[in-house]
Amino acid sequence: MLRKEFLEGEDAEFLRYYLALAVASRIVQYQDPGLLDKMPPWVGDMVREMCDVYLDQGNYIIVSNLGETDRTEMVAELTRILGITAAPQP
Q1: Quick check: 53 and 4 in contact, CB under 8 A?
Q2: Contact between residue 10 and residue 33 where contact means Cβ atoms under 8 Å apart
Q3: Residue 45, phi-psi category: left (phi > 0), alpha (psi -120 to 50), beta (remainder)
């Protein structure tokens, strides 16, 4: 279990992103958008941002020092489950 201070620290963006990615994966696995209701609001914001990137770019690829990982299929399904149809306009 992650302690709250690890997720709120200055350098915690990496941990927050991977927590949001794990939640997104579970939403798809269990077909349960209600999982977001059990998370802090910032998790929902990050999950929705993943969907917005997918809708804007047509894919979702994670690039890290280990290489690229294509998560397009998972994020496409996530977008469908959450009922997100368009990225918000600035």
Answers
A1: no
A2: no
A3: alpha
Give the Cα separation of 38 and 22 in Å (integer).
14
Task: Decide the pairing of beta strands 61-64 and 67-70.
Answer: antiparallel
Helix, strand or coil for residue 35?
A: helix
Q: Name the one residue in this structure whose structure tokens are 């209701």.
A: 37
The residue assigned the tokens 């990137």 is 53
Contacts 24+ apart (CB under 8 A), 64-72: 71/21
**Interval 26-68: pLDDT, tens:** 999 999 999 999 999 999 999 999 999 999 999 999 988 889 9
Q: In the numeric block, which tokens belong to residue 14?
A: 């990496």
Q: Which amino acid is at 89?
A: Q
